[in-house]
Amino acid sequence: MVQKWLVLFVALLIFLGWGGAVACAESEERQVRVFFDGEEISFRVAPQFQNNRLFVPVRPLLEALGTQVYWNQEKNTLSTTVEGKNIVVHLKQSMVEIVGNMVESDTPVVVVGGATMLPLRSFSELLGLKVRWDGENNIVEIESGRYVPFLRVKDDDNLPLAVRQWLEVSKPEEVNAALELEDCLYILSSMGWKPTAGYSVKIRRIERENSSFRVNVEIREPLPGQFVFQVISYPYDLVSLDLKAVGRPSAINFQQITR
Fold this sequence. Notes:
The protein is an alpha+beta fold. The protein has two domains: about 1-145, Copper amine oxidase-like, N-terminal domain (Copper Amine Oxidase, Chain A, domain 1, 2-Layer Sandwich), CATH 3.30.457; about 150-259, no CATH class. It is built from five helices and 22 strands. The chain has helices at about 1-15, 60-65, 120-125, 160-170, 245, and strands at about 20-25, 25-30, 35, 40, 50, 55, 70, 75-80, 85-90, 95-100, 100-105, 110, 115-120, 130-135, 140-145, 150, 175-180, 185-190, 200-210, 210-220, 235-240, 250-259.
């Protein structure tokens, strides 16, 4: 599994083509929606066609994959950590380094509206991901084969009493937890008591890791100097899984990413 995601990240960077940025010319104005494992990816700069190839912004796609990228301006490098594996991208040398192995890129960067774009179909085919193109509705669906479907639970849902009691006790604490009730598995990620607004938590993805599940959680905190309301909040996210459909995991592991 580690190798698969390392390949995924490397492929993304290769298609970025760190040899130099070029402006996207003669792009076709077609509104395209992209879904990854059933969840729509939100783009600040819309996906665009260029020479019959669909280009999409890199950062939202990386975030959808649960990867966080760090920029070192002094060294002119990008780096990330995927399950303990360090990856470093040397932009000036157009190289990607993974545990001493170097991969050279030969594809130039495409930049639209300040967003770095990559060719989606080439990236998907290289990784062996399942891709479906709905030309009538301009929709791209990408499937990794590891996605575990879930439903987001709202406060106004008719939750069983045992789940409501568990939620009320758990959400004032900073905790990641799960509760199994009959054929449902409830997964909670809570930031606990906060003195202001501006905090949020979202369970973005649940993936299979052999017989266990990995839950990717996105955490957002107020920026320094950001105006926020002075009100007590309990940011949390709660989802439910149908155990009959997805099976019972041997373990549940949480991975948090702070945006």
